Amino acid sequence: MKKNRLKILFAAFIIGSSLIIHSCSKDEDITSEIAVVGIAQDPNNFKGDVTNGQVVTLDPMKSYKLTGIVTIKNGGTLVIPAGIKITATAGAASYILVEQGGKIFANGTAGSPVLFTSETTVAGNWGGIVICGKAPINTGSTGSSEIGNLIYGGTEADDNSGSLNFVRIEYAGAEFAAGKKFNGLSLFGIGSVTRVESVALLNNADDGIEIYGGTVNVSNIVSASNTNNAFSYKDGWIGSATNIFTKRKADGTGNNGIKGINNNTNPTAIPISKPTIKNVTLIGGTNTGESNAFKLSSGTQADIENIVTSNWQTGFNFEGDETITYFNDQNKIKDILFSTNTTTKASATSTAGTAVTISPNTYIEKTDATGAGNGILIPSWAVGWSGLQ
């Protein structure tokens, strides 16, 4: 008993500088219950590094102002409990950056999601969330992220960068260099143990979510009212995307529902992008921009099933010889409902730029396909927490 009291007194003495105490029983060794709070001490000035060995846990009773860059370094962990609201106030200089070996755990609930937002409701008013992992990519043994110049990629297919669950990211996508913008969520070489599910990307100024290689599996994703692609991937991604609901901006701006690439400069680079994409609803708008429900190019492959599209100029647009060879006449696309106002169900353009005839066996239609779960309507799993009603 006396030994435990001394530990508690010592811990209480240093709480003001860097440590916080969690409750424990009298017979419990409290050293395992101490979490470093570091940068989390001032919720009105949330920025800085979470360093190796630190576990920074935000206070669920407080809201936070993101006044700069929060970097979770290799060996550091940031924990964001349910219901916390983080408001960015420094434009392109405010964003969350997770290095290889760092972990972020933003775990909300359907009734109390974690919210990343901006002080003004303008697309592109802050950066976004960037996570770098150690899973394989096809642009080299490793790569360097555009944002932060961080190393990503490697050989650890089961790498773990933490979890995002019941999270909403809105008004991100600030321009960080001439002609270059953040996405709402950027996943660079993320491994399969990382959990990304029930994540909403709303009103961002570039892609809602972009996946750069890796093996991560994503599910229950909402991407709506973003100014570029709702969902994009490239560089050898071989994970899965299940239950995806996307919707174009009301004014018709934006581009593709899902844009898939293998490798921009080498369409045969390995590992070849080959995700499983299943249970998807893609809602377009007025036919501006590229206006493809799916744009698949530069060697990408995919297994695609149970898709509902509406209001797109083209349902499936295939570009490049390798991609066309994989999909054309191969029954890789199953159970498709072109719901309303799709001008062209599928088109293809060779690497040389000539039109290619699409075989009837390229896709199989299904008049009662459900897509993300509710046809062209918002699926029940997305209502409320995602910002959609």
Automatic annotation (TrEMBL):
<dbReference type="InterPro" id="IPR011050">
    <property type="entry name" value="Pectin_lyase_fold/virulence"/>
</dbReference>
<feature type="signal peptide">
    <location>
        <begin position="1"/>
        <end position="23"/>
    </location>
</feature>
<keyword id="KW-0732">Signal</keyword>
<protein>
    <recommendedName>
        <fullName>Right-handed parallel beta-helix repeat-containing protein</fullName>
    </recommendedName>
</protein>
